[in-house]
Amino acid sequence: MNRENKRRQYEKGYYKTHACKDTFNCKVCGRQVFPAEDGSKHRNHCPNCLSSLHVDIEPGDRESDCGGIMEAVAVWVRKGGEWAIIHRCRRCGELVSNRVASDDNPMKLMSIAMKPLCEPPFPLEHIEEMVSLMGGEGSMKK
Questions:
Q1: What angle do CA 93, 44, 113 make, to 5 degrees?
Q2: CB 67: neighbour CB atoms within 10 A?
Q3: Max Cα-Cα span within the chain
Q4: 74 in helix, strand or coil?
Q5: Alpha-carbon dihedral of residues 59, 65, 71, 73, nearest 10 degrees?
Q6: Which of 46, 51, 106, 132 has its CA 20 to 30 A from that of 89?
Q7: pTM score of the predicted model
Q8: What top-level branch of life does the organism fall under (predicted)?
Q9: Distance CA 133, CA 76 (A)
Q10: Rounded distance, CA 69 to CA 137, Å?
């Protein structure tokens, strides 16, 4: 049974109050994903590639008709230091925040976190010029 069809079998809001104990195969990397053993009641993304499916409007409701691939595009830190992943639907563009699970791929999480520093929205060659324009010395020590 796949998780896209569960909304047809259970009453509305079932997964808001019941833990999801089913396994699924990731639509992106193909790995089999098992229920979370880390204190979370709902496994909503693949721990290997961090991708998910757009099946919910509200967490656990299985009411979304989109069904698109949810791609991990960013991470952020919640109050208290817990990390969360920002997923963006490739089909409709909706953004959703999901808690990081204890078995999530740490290298994938770090690569997403470092992306803004590795690919800034301006050319790195112009940093000295920008610092100078802001009133700084304008020279970078090598």
A1: 65
A2: 13
A3: 66
A4: strand
A5: -60
A6: 106
A7: 0.73
A8: Bacteria
A9: 31
A10: 47
CA 81 and chain centroid, separation: 16
Phi and psi dihedrals of 58, rounded to 5?
A: -110, 145
> Residue 74's pLDDT is what?
95
Place of tokens 């204190």: 39
User: What is the amino acid identity at position 65?
Assistant: D
User: Token pair for residue 37?
Assistant: 């053993």
Q: Could you tell me the residue ranges of all domains in the chain?
A: 6-133
Structure tokens that stand for 18 in this block: 């019941």
pLDDT tens, position by position, for the chain (142 residues)? Answer: 455 554 455 566 665 566 666 788 999 999 998 876 655 566 788 999 999 999 888 877 778 889 899 999 999 999 999 999 999 999 999 999 988 988 899 999 999 999 988 888 878 777 778 788 887 665 555 5
Sequential DSSP letters for 5-24: SHHHHS-TTHHHHS-----E
Task: Answer whether 26's CB lies under 8 Å from 43's CB.
Answer: no
Are residues 28 and 69 in contact, defined by beta-carbon separation less than 8 angstroms? yes
Structural tokens at position 82: 């817990």
Residue type, 118: C
Q: Which helix (H) or strand (E) holds 39?
A: none
